[in-house]
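Q: A small favour: would you put together sequence and structure tokens for a protein?
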Amino acid sequence: MKQLATSWQLWALLSAFFAALTAIFAKIGIENVGSDFATFIRTIVILLALAAILSATGGWQSLGSVSRRSAVFLVLSGLATGASWICYFRALKLGDAARVAPIDKMSVVLVALFGVIFLGERLALPNWLGVALIAAGAVLVAYRG
């Protein structure tokens, strides 16, 4: 059971499951709320939930334990996350969840490309085929025929 709890595949599947719920809950929740204000509410909930998790698990660290390099990239990641959430909620406000979410998941394609370009990661031919299929699938799901 411990091996299952440390499996990246399990956590990735759970992430996908909760991301799907996020889209559905957010689409319902923003019906009469501005998308930016909805993002603000979501952010507060996440901060409170994470504070509770850190307290329960004893995961708090001193800020001094974070290197300058890590801090810079975590701040950049936070800014990118905020921009993503703002854009995502705005898209949900304007479009169908079933069409917005697949386009949002084009991030999978971009992560593969950025991983190769910026991190030196290598993808084999089957991996590239998967990336192409994800891109094609996202476009087909989002297509309004």
